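Predict structure. Chain length: 304.
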Amino acid sequence: MYRFRFCILFCLLELSIHGLGQSDPLRVHGSTGLATYFGDLKEKAKLIDQSSPFFNLGLSYNITDQILGRFDFSIMTLKADDRFNTRSDLVARNLNFKTTLWETNFTIQYDFLNMNSEDYFLSPYVFAGFGLMHMNPWTYDRNGVKRFLRGYHTEGQGLPSYPERKEYNLFNFQIPFGAGIKYAINENVNVYVELAFRKLFTDYLDDVGNTYPDKNIILNESLDPTTTIGLTFRGDELDPSLPYPNTVIQRGGYTKDTFYTIGIGVSFRLNGVSLGSGRSGGSFNKIRKVGSTRSRLKNPGSVF
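Prediction complete.
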């Protein structure tokens, strides 16, 4: 998995290097900020709550003056813990999870103002598209051992007695969409702030989404029944007198899982920082200022 992530990053860098010195409207951008989960283990959707850093690297191409095609690769950590909820039943449930999540997205962006002209140096924008993500939720069990949850079938997924509860996939499609605003420092360098949401097609980002499975079924069909029961029901860690829940009690399924990111980034027009030769002696070409006498229609200044 780490080799795959490295290959993606390496390809992005190769494309960036190849684009240096070219006259096409290719750009490279990068950003960082906060990633936040919302789902069954979080009572309220807050923009910043149990958030973690995320990092993004991408490329874009100006299709027209105001329409751009984008490719983005992001990596982040998502997490949630019942102990931060206020509802007593959720606190008593005592579940938590973390996952390292990476995604690759292809989107179309629309700029409301034409920043390729000399008239605008700031523009709001919106974008939407499709993507692929990889997740693998985990937690520490009551003995402090890290456990990747899918293999323990905590809600009976994949067990013979629960044929309707399929084992969830770690790779899933998603629909990214969002909005931002960008500002041109000069014709070639821009900064931006962006808020992005994802429509997911899985409710097991947090390994929670159904009723408690039958304890006897776990004992008979699970490969590690003791560990599975300990990960499925954790209320007795807070109150040892609590019995294992009835199978009609919801373990999750209250809210569809999603996550969102908010970040700040910078974008470079690659041929605006090309390495020169000749009289300049190989120094960086000078970046022209916004509003220069040379038309920006010939020198696009979009952030992506």
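Summary: The two ends are 28 Å apart (CA to CA).
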